Description:
The protein is built from eight helices and 21 strands.
Amino acid sequence: xxxxxxxxxxxxxxxxxxxxxxxxxxxxxxxxxxxxxxxxxxxxxxxxxxxxxxxxxxxxxxxxxxxxxxxxxxxxxxxxxxxxxxxxxxxxxxxxxxxxxxxxxxxxxxxxxxxxxxxxxxxxxxxxxxxxxxxxxxxxxxxxxxxxxxxxxxxxxxxxxxxxxxxxxxxxxxxxxxxxxxxxxxxxxxxxxxxxxxxxxxxxxxxxxxxxxxxxxxxxxxxxxxxxxxxxxxxxxxxxxxxxxxxxxxxxxxxxxxxxxxxxxxxxxxxxxxxxxxxxxxxxxxxxxxxxxxxxxxxxxxxxxxxxxxxxxxxxxxxxxxxxxxxxxxxxxxxxxxxxxxxxxxxxxxxxxxxxxxxxxxxxxxxxxxxxxxxxxxxxxxxxxxxxxxxxxxxxxxxxxxxxxxxxxxxxxxxxxx
Length: 418
């Protein structure tokens, strides 16, 4: 005899499927024509079990969300760049696997058991730390942006690359876990004449940068984790220097040595490179801080408007190496009218800030721009204002206002307007 429950009580799946079909039959317009509201294959079969991906991966439908490079930028990808897909992200935290890379000799593959951090020079007691030693110090967690000084550098002479990933993607924003550098320096005992630190990496390029002692004692970290897990190899595993608000080249990866001295060393990366050459041939010296900057990430060339006229959300990010971003302005008409954007999410020192502006698009062409205000009162300038001050020789520290032109079909393009 059959079980009456199986024949008289519909299953939850059958009920939902029936309701979907009935609803579609009663609806009108686009809703009635949308076949996706019916039962789909994934609703009728078991999915993968809990161990199918021991280290979780994004959905395969998000396979296009990835770092990208521009092959013609450098002669060899061991000394090159790839870019964070800003147009695909929201909030303020960059996933570890999407943080842009900049290498001068490729990714160093460092065995943490054999890695050491040395502090020497003008100190009372030279020290060598193992990774185990370092993890016995008090640790701190902070969210900071890291921006390459050359971010947007290819735009100095005019619009070049058609995508926010390529114009502004040499940046990421993560939570770093590490040891305040001042605690390690206290252990070594810096002599009164010790005014500078030379940080050196363990990569084949032996990257070095001079850092003033005031900054080192203020907010620098020796970090071993980002976003809750160990640093990725391309981000300096097992140890990197964090220099909040200052250009990314100073955040030495694979950190192996800190030498204390009485003056800056003037190595390659602070003389022939990473200095801002002015129109008269002189260079701006020690331009470490990253000025306030913002960019609209959507709509943008890689994220066009696809829904047609109507309610539209402008999405973007802003940051400053000198503090927070209390305000961002947005214009849809190339600067004739500015509107205060809606800031949302955490407002943290030297971190990315997320802004939105919602409006009803009438389907006419747009000229989109954003303008950041930081907590010091500084306002993001136009590109033309920067060029008047610095000329066209530099590729560093371009924080000028970016313009996207959106046509009636919602397609966006990198342009400049006067």
